[in-house]
Specification:
The protein has helices at 28-42, 52-66, 108-119, 133-141; strands spanning 5-7, 13-15, 18-22, 69-75, 82-89, 93-99, 124-129, 145-150, 161-166. With 168 residues, it is α+β, with helices and mostly antiparallel strands. The chain has one domain (5-122): Aminopeptidase (3-Layer(aba) Sandwich). The model is unreliable at 1-13 (pLDDT under 50).
Length: 168
């Protein structure tokens, strides 16, 4: 354990000053804001295919209620701001892992990924846009291997992506 880490919700390790917990319906607006801000900062080349309102509706009515689990990272203390979130879909798909642009490189993404890995039924797989070099490097540091490259036909943005897999 690094000195800068502390116990998070449910005994989970989290960087100092950060608490991890399961998301609730009340988190929909904050999760949407992190999703939109993160994508705009990290992937300015992506086309905007949905309005902010449609994205909020999708987070509210699809992501939060139908995912296997959604975790949020937030500043510790009452009223702490949401810093990031991760979504497990099915038994083995990391569907989303996004951080606020000002929350990068603090160990929060690694901690959220650890929560998802702990809940998965075996290995994990995920898709990342090919041009998202920072995300690709993050997953490769965590042991994921690129197993397939796609031309973008499978996603709404029509942006080439990579399927990564982590063996159990």
């Amino acid at each position: 354990m690094r000195v800068t880490e502390s116990m998070g919700a449910g005994g989970a390790m989290a960087p100092a000053g950060v608490r991890l917990r399961r998301a609730t319906p009340a988190d929909a607006e904050a999760v949407t804001r992190v999703f939109l801000d993160s994508r705009a900062a990290a992937m300015p080349y992506l086309p905007r295919v949905h309005s902010d309102e449609d994205t909020l509706a999708w987070i509210t009515h699809v992501v939060l209620p139908t995912s296997t689990a959604v975790w949020v990272a937030e500043e510790a203390g009452e009223g702490g701001e949401l810093l990031g979130f991760a979504v497990l879909a099915g038994d083995d798909e990391l569907d989303h892992l996004y951080l606020r642009p000002d929350a990068l490189r603090r160990g929060i993404g690694s901690r959220l990924l650890a929560e998802v890995r702990g809940a998965a039924k075996g290995g994990l797989e995920l898709y990342v846009f090919q041009r998202n070099a920072a995300a690709r490097a993050f997953y490769e540091r965590h042991g994921f291997t690129a197993v397939a490259f796609d031309d973008g036909a499978r996603n709404e943005e029509n942006e080439p992506d990579v399927l990564y897999r982590l063996r159990p």
